[in-house]
Design a protein that fits this description.
With 173 residues, the chain is mostly helical. 66% of the residues lie in helices and 0% in strands. It is globular and about 65 Å long.
Length: 173
């Protein structure tokens, strides 16, 4: 594994309750001269569902279990059938239950993001200046990027518009 002393130490800290201090493209620009072409390509093509790369396969198992549990609990809540996840982790089940009980979707996303950051920190463990740290950082940036798509005001406006349309249809009946 390559050591990235300067690169890793120069990256701004990422917090689940914070803003993105740099874009994913800016992160890639910083990595370009410090990582191999193969690692750069893996970082460039990284998604939250990726399976290739250091740490990424382990992350995929965590993210997949979280997604399956979320789909399972949502389906059960709506009275629909959904296959029970193959493996049940108590902590994942509790986090998903808390997220589904949240007062609004933004709070639910925050609960999930906190858990995802904790899981990534556990996967990175005691690694310091290597691929695990770099790819863990990249996944966290991807998670923050995803969360940045949620705009409370825009979401509320969309909700009000949809609610108005439904009310109008009911009124017309």
């Amino acid at each position: 594994m390559a050591a990235y002393y300067y690169l890793v130490s120069s990256l701004p800290e990422l917090k689940s309750d914070g803003e993105m201090p740099l874009s994913y493209q800016e992160f890639l620009d910083l990595c370009e001269s410090s990582v191999s072409v193969d690692k750069y390509n893996l970082l460039r093509d990284l998604t939250l569902s990726s399976t290739n790369g250091p740490l990424v396969n382990e992350w995929n198992k965590v993210y997949g279990a979280l997604t399956k549990e979320l789909n399972y609990q949502r389906s059960m809540k709506m009275g629909k059938s959904y296959p029970t996840p193959d493996t049940k982790d108590i902590l994942t089940t509790q986090v998903v239950s808390s997220a589904l009980a949240a007062k609004d979707p933004l709070e639910a996303e925050k609960i999930m993001l906190d858990f995802e950051f904790q899981q990534l920190d556990e996967l990175v463990g005691l690694h310091m200046f290597d691929d695990y740290v770099l790819f863990g950082y990249a996944v966290k940036l991807k998670l923050l990027e995803r969360q940045g798509c949620f705009d409370h005001d825009k979401g509320e406006k969309e909700f009000r518009q949809l609610l108005g349309e439904v009310q109008q249809r009911v009124y017309n009946l």
